[in-house]
LacI family DNA-binding transcriptional regulator (Sphingobacterium litopenaei), 682 residues
Amino acid sequence: MENKEITIYDIAKALNISPSTVSRGLSNHPAINTKTKNKILKTAHDMGYQTNKFASNLRKKTTNTIGVIIPRLDSLFMSSVIAGIEKVANNAGYNLIISQSLESEKKEKNNALTMYNSRVDGLIVSLSNGTRDYSHFKKFIDKGIPLLFFDRIAEELPSTKVVIDNFRAGYTATQHLIEQGCKKIFHITNDMHRNVYRDRFEGYKKALIDYSIAFKEELFVINDMTESAIVNYIEDEIVKKQNVPDGIFLTSDSSAAVAITTLRHHGFSIPQDIAVVGFNNDIISKVTEPPITTINYPGVEMGETVARILLNHFTGNGNLNLTNTVVLNTDLIVRKSSLKS
Amino acid sequence: MENKEITIYDIAKALNISPSTVSRGLSNHPAINTKTKNKILKTAHDMGYQTNKFASNLRKKTTNTIGVIIPRLDSLFMSSVIAGIEKVANNAGYNLIISQSLESEKKEKNNALTMYNSRVDGLIVSLSNGTRDYSHFKKFIDKGIPLLFFDRIAEELPSTKVVIDNFRAGYTATQHLIEQGCKKIFHITNDMHRNVYRDRFEGYKKALIDYSIAFKEELFVINDMTESAIVNYIEDEIVKKQNVPDGIFLTSDSSAAVAITTLRHHGFSIPQDIAVVGFNNDIISKVTEPPITTINYPGVEMGETVARILLNHFTGNGNLNLTNTVVLNTDLIVRKSSLKS
DNA sequence: AAATAAATTGCAACCGATTGCAATATCAAA
DNA sequence: TTTGATATTGCAATCGGTTGCAATTTATTT
């Protein structure tokens, strides 16, 4: 019969020893004699034994599952982060439950509840743009379930965070535009509720100041960065009002791509009239005409890092409370969209 | 104490009834008196009861978990499919374990093993391009674990499949190019091991024949559709050898985007010299210059469909063996990359 | 009111692994 | 050879929900 599952009781019977010994042998308990252990391991393998995780979880009160909540899956960045987390987690015998908030606070709260009910051992989150309050994470904190953030973090919460230096990236991007001779640089970004956008904005502002370019509120544009929002802004503000910049720094490649497409459609040449810098080094940045100068984001590394911190916490190596924030490096990738010279 | 978990025993004690009754009341057993049931439900809610899934799984031998193995996450199509599956599955109280094969057979086999060991109740798969044999799915079939495929399917296996009509989509795309006046249409695609590419190719061929255009092997190009493979092909075969088509049908938008970028770089105008059609309606198709004519893929619908079939099987409505293949509709989305007139 | 049928509820075993503590085996020292 | 120390192994309870079957209630019929 293929049907019957093999249990430690079967192994015990086969070897004429007790199930406790089998259990301990299987989990490498130090009190077990090496010979006995090897016999157990061999028999288990021969009989095709698989641990029943539910019995084990029930008893140990742990699930070997890590929850991941992210805004969306459909970017190279996110899928790289997931690949990084998955690699580290699977090697350690953990499974992932992944869900998308689709930038909605409500869905994020829902997802968090599902994760809680599934009793994940740890939760890794990148916040949705819509999220304003963090009450849905309280349960986790109260119950001592490790909660870590990456990229879009909750600064108010006392959790471990893995981020890039958004300030510096914003500074570098802006500085690059200035060095290309831009004097009137627009910054199109999302609202300031998320650290990533706020810090990039601060970097942008600081670069302007350092190079003695006055920062004016009207240079700085906030919207939700959807395709239509970008198109509308460009057509209404730049084209119609003839309020034309010589450089634009946008905080995503897809919005930069939309911007370039729209601007060219209205007769502007990129980068001669307007230089453009995006963010993320997503695939899209390579295939627009011209290709987009952007900031490279270390996705896989970010995923591996956040997963490793969590796992170290589980195994008792490393303390979540000690590693509060990890900052990863980024690079500016220069392509034609910004090269005036 | 926030600490202590509430169990059915606590509820039983509070109401002075037996745990069995509580269990049955909670799971809507018909034998339980409605009044009793309501009391149980109310008390459970008031006390903040949460089912312990491990105890339940242990006893019921089901995990309420569905495994999903896909090639990659980073496309709009895949993230839509996942969103669709997730929506249906979560509503029914199921969790998802998602993993990426990254187009590698080895990783896919590995992922399948992990899913098996995690005892998923069902497995949903879209095959990697590298997959040649299907032995890693045997375990599931032998053990009666439902196995469903979507998009990139294993035709040899007797599983339920959800696909689009790739033949027709290929036909439509090609027909569109022909109607634009193209006479020499290249087809750049992946190798024929996956149904999606094979069927699109057959559609392409049929359209040529129907419109009395001779199909020649040299029109038809196979490679792995990576960025470099596309660039190399175009530079070596089209540009250097001056073997220039007047239309190209590629089976992904990202490769179409790369093709357009490369061709323009070499002085061709799109669509005047060469009309281009892609596949997938990924975001990238909208931001290239010119934007790409493509086939729209019903991602969310595909995900919902495959998940719903699986869930119906679990609940006993609908029989997996009866629904063998579901075919969803696609549309041709015409954009500038193909409009010669 | 007694007898029979139908509706509810409870008992107790079970799912399979884990673990504190007691029991036994092994080995070295006296 | 006896004793005490140490290394191994086993016993039995436990985690929390589920379910076949028996027991008890309640409703219906005569």
